[in-house]
Amino acid sequence: MEYQVKPGKLQAAAILVLINGILNILSAGLITLLIVIGTLGIGLICLPILILPFILGVFEIVYGANLMSEPPRVERPNQTLAVFEMACILYGNVLSLAVGIISLVFYSDPEVKAYFDSLNAEAAE
User: Fold this and answer.
1) pLDDT tens, 79-124?
2) What pTM value is reported for the model?
3) CB 81 within 8 A of CB 60
4) In 3D, which of 85, 117, 119, 107 has the Cα closest to residue 11?
5) pLDDT score at 25
């Protein structure tokens, strides 16, 4: 089975999502650690608030790795993940906001859409 060459914008989006996932996990862990140490353990009450960046980071790493594989193990761009990346601005994460916007712009590119359409057409055969 011969696959098309992966568009550069899709490869860039995959790398950005992967890096952002790693940074989300590290930042959520660091913020949690600082809150717990700074409040002598009382800050554990705030732990549910910091779960979104951590879980989002895990999903980003899995999605980015699947997108970078050859051929990609995804059927279509994950726009929901990009929206959750933009929602991380509520945590002051400007990098995640930028990655979410860039991902949505890259996913709407005609070349990327055509690439996913060709992958789905070949999978249907």
Assistant:
1) 999 999 999 898 888 999 999 999 999 999 999 999 888 888 776 6
2) 0.85
3) yes
4) 107
5) 92
Domain boundaries, the chain: 8-124
Tokens of 67: 């997108």
Q: Tell me the residue ranges of DSSP E strands in 13-90.
A: none
Alpha-carbon distance of 47 to 60, in angstroms, equals 20
Report residue 3's pLDDT band, with 50, 70 and 90 as the boundaries: low
- Residue 83's H or E segment, with its range, is helix 79-87
Neighbours of 18 (CB within 10 A): 18
How far CA 113 is from CA of 2, 44, 75, 91, 105, in Å, comes to 18, 44, 11, 31, 11
Rounded distance, CA 34 to CA 52, Å?
17
Within 13 Å, how many C-alpha atoms sit on residue 107's CB side? 20
pLDDT reported for residue 101: 95
Q: How far apart are CA 55 and CA 101, in angstroms?
A: 19
